[in-house]
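Our collaborator T.R. sent over the components below with a one-line note: 'Predict the complex.' Nothing else. No constraints on interfaces, no templates requested, no preferences about which chain binds where. So this is a plain run: every listed entity goes in together, and whatever single assembly comes back becomes the starting point for the next discussion.
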Amino acid sequence: MARPEMIASGPGSRALVVDIVRSSGPISRVELTQATGLTQPSISNIVRHLLETGVLRESGRVASTGGKPRTLLEINPTALYAVGIQLGFEAMTFVAAGAGGGTVARQLVDGAAVAEPQDVVERLAAQFASFIDIAGISVDTIAGVGVVVPGPLSPAGGTMFRSPTLRRWEGFPLLERLAALLPVPVLLDNDAAAAAVGEFWTRRIARTETFATVYMGTGIGAGVVLDGALLRGSSSNAAELGHMTIDADGVACSCGNVGCVERYAAPAAVLSDAGTAPRRFAGLGLEFTEHTTGSDFDRLARAAVNGHEAARGLLEHSADRLAAAVVSFNNVFDLDSIVLAGPSFAIAGSMYARAARARIEQTSFARQAHGTTIEIAANPRDSAAIGAAALVLQSSVAPGHGPALHP
Amino acid sequence: MARPEMIASGPGSRALVVDIVRSSGPISRVELTQATGLTQPSISNIVRHLLETGVLRESGRVASTGGKPRTLLEINPTALYAVGIQLGFEAMTFVAAGAGGGTVARQLVDGAAVAEPQDVVERLAAQFASFIDIAGISVDTIAGVGVVVPGPLSPAGGTMFRSPTLRRWEGFPLLERLAALLPVPVLLDNDAAAAAVGEFWTRRIARTETFATVYMGTGIGAGVVLDGALLRGSSSNAAELGHMTIDADGVACSCGNVGCVERYAAPAAVLSDAGTAPRRFAGLGLEFTEHTTGSDFDRLARAAVNGHEAARGLLEHSADRLAAAVVSFNNVFDLDSIVLAGPSFAIAGSMYARAARARIEQTSFARQAHGTTIEIAANPRDSAAIGAAALVLQSSVAPGHGPALHP
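Returned assembly:
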């Protein structure tokens, strides 16, 4: 599957302008001309359109050397909203974000669990109505809803295939059903990929940076942002860090490969290790069922950061295995910065950050050429939902830059 | 280190036009307008400039529905040449390519071995003069010289650091000295990265394809082409496939990491394995010195394809280890196609292709979404030199798209 041909004019240039305003903060038209390489008339046209549609607003003037004062432009945070929904096994997270990327509302409800997909989608649509009602956001100002899921997506982008936790969703026409039930346009994407766009958008990362998020929820994924756009690959299934082999003679993975880092570092692997010596974790209230993987892992992580020796040993082993894969990942992308995002970094994220930072500093291929910063998301649990909203903002400002909004 | 800001007009659009003509073959201005999304006046301007500078030429007319016949445009293969030079330990390869990417001259001379870098650069410059003289190419028609080397490059791009085979070149101001001695502009790049651009250019791969080469010379590298441009990362050290870990508890690598696939699959590793049972390889004339790694590996590879059981076992093990890393690499890039390039695939490349193809078909993450084709370069030994020439062509047609020509 090939990507559509890049459009060198129109939406691409508009996205470039929005992106520079987003990352630079208040900026004049003259500076935009310099930063983009576009002509002055092009900048004037694009800015006029963005002011009319409310994406940008004028924010004041600065004195100019020997001319009239320059008007500054900035993102208009309140004219346009996007809603992001992360659909997971244990929870559904709703967030609403303004065009600047800031979260203005948040809600957590029960996840899909083992319910019928159609029932879950109907519940999601009802919840959406109550969510924007409580948040006081008019549906007319919502550019769209981004829904993100853990599973790999089919090339057409409308269904999941081979989802380890949401098995009965395989082949369910998710995008089509969402579009039929929601009153605004909707897009569907992968949670780890979305998180990368969310961090890129809300952290004001410059588009010239080579940036990635490493995402850990139930599984392990990643997203890479190059020149301001998400790396999608041939079928929107790029950046599957969790399925990088760290032991070519290792254990089989549900994906069909062997020795995938997910099998050694993800919550299920950590809990499986804990299950081999349950007495050492007796006081922690672990339930060891498939449905409690997330909360069991949180309990272990909390014990680890509180000094429980055995729990700490398990988490450090997981962090060490993940760090090995992160170095390989960095060796193929040559990154400026990495953010750790996703619910499984919410409690013990700093153990993972420290392990990855040390490995990269000591062993990364290009360490003599440049450093790679490693940080933790401001709110790891919400990263994917915020990213889903950011994808909507990107898509409504610059159609064709990512998955399309439907209808 | 960040990349320079992408320019949304000018060279970018010109590169897009050249690239579509290159990959599509003869094409009309109207079709170019449709394929690029640029306006008709923009296409007219760009095409006029490219005709004037000789990059494109008119190649005939086709009847049009209800209008005057359309003139077709194609790459002009003889107006402009580029020279590519691969500087290796055992050999220096010179190629000259026309703007269409076809090789018009080729020469192989002694490599850098352990000579003083300055002496080697002077010999290279003298050889360049004799090479274009014998090939009958006027220096006025040469857009530039691309020189490619195996080592990682410093961020400024002018020197190598930590080159396993060319140790005394570390920190030598290679680009500066080349620019001082050669009568045409010069650029410097990594051999594996260059090979990717060479294959992309000469195979007429569409820019919408997610494409990579896996390169094996003394070491193992790769190059990834996204939207027609090489993935460079933060410091031009992206795509280091050879330094992906396939055993997180494995052997130390000279790069500072552990378990890198290069330590299990590259020629030195294969020869090291052979060295543990030298009697099994007695008839093959292996010399087992650092300087003969390339020719010793060729002898083993030849024996393997000719049915020598022990040699075949070694090569198959190497191919199997490399295939494990190629799957991880594919899982993070989600590739449409892969080409195996570089001298170490020259003899037994099909063993490597078969192993990688089988692994990808059986275990790649997105195998249910799409296939990934794996082919061998038409001339694996020349891939990097041809790529060096292609980089010059790309750079002279679209400055800013890759490393700059100096001066």
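Summary for T.R.: The CA atoms of residues 361 and 367 of chain A lie 6 Å apart.
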